[in-house]
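Dear Dr. L.,

I hope this message finds you well. Following up on our conversation about the binding site, I have prepared a predicted three-dimensional model of the protein together with calcium ion. For your records, I am including the exact sequence and ligand specification that went into the calculation, followed by the structure tokens. Please feel free to forward this to your student if that is useful.
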Amino acid sequence: AKARGKNRYCLFTSDLSERIVFLRQLENNLRQAVGNREFTVFFQPKIDPVNGTMTGAEALVRWRKEDGTIVNPADFIPLAEETGLIIPLGEQVLEQACHMLTILERLGRPELSIAVNLSPLQFVQNNLVERILAMLDRHGIAHDRLELEITETAMMTNLAKTVDTLNQLAGAGIAIAVDDFGTGYSSLSYLKRFPIRTLKIDRSFIRDLTRDPSDDQLVETIILMAHNLGIHVVAEGVESAEQLEWLKQRRCEQIQGYVCSRPLPHEAFLAFIERSVPV
Ligand code: C2E
Ligand code: CA
Ligand code: CA
Ligand code: CA
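The resulting structure of the complex is given below.
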């Protein structure tokens, strides 16, 4: 038993050092990729379930490597966050979102908004508000066409600063959405203290909707609570027509999920928009 224990320990250390080498390599690659602007943004449509029209889209970053392979954010956002690379990376995402907003306006669709994810580190960046407003103004974009998705956890780390930052952003007309709502273990009192326009109900509550009565009740309660507070609701990860119909009946304002569309690269997103001309 002792020998086996020792063996296991050796295996563990070699795994660990391999992992460190791997992470250092990944960090170098990521740093280069930021420099080479290898990141591209996919757009996932958000739909109004009542009339089926598109209301906007969420910008979701992808790493397009030199060999053409696409890497999903789960495989690099955590390290980008840890190394601070999320700041220049996030800036590139915001730039691409602004660029898309100008295209939408040129296409005669200025009613469409784009939501961008803000990582916790970006959110506490000192000059965040100035930088975002400067970027919007440089592109000539009305502030209310940009929405920022921020997780509860990011909002809770420094309450005084959060109130200040959110008030500045909302005061400038930018819409604030709480992302992954319901997963943050936080008190709900912030919902009346922060200038929040939208709650995004996390996919984990939507997954078994219409199949698990306790999820049905939970989601129904979240929608009622949000509406009582004058907050809009987005359901994310909606995959079935039954779920869509259920959410429509409960006046959920927006639907996002594979039932409407997967996240789409630039050209495919523009094609989707052409097919979704409002009636
Ligand atoms: P998120 O903000 O919760 O984004 C929603 C995720 O759910 C996306 O994964 C999307 O592709 C996926 N999704 C949408 N509809 C469905 C569905 O019907 N079924 C299923 N199974 N999945 C669905 P994605 O694009 O891989 O992004 C994962 C996470 O990475 C995001 O979660 C967000 O936290 C982060 N992320 C993505 N882009 C950015 C970014 O530009 N900046 C930052 N800081 N984080 C980002
Ligand atoms: Ca999001
Ligand atoms: Ca989310
Ligand atoms: Ca999520």
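In brief: Confidence is low (pLDDT under 50) at residues 1-8.

With kind regards,
A. P.
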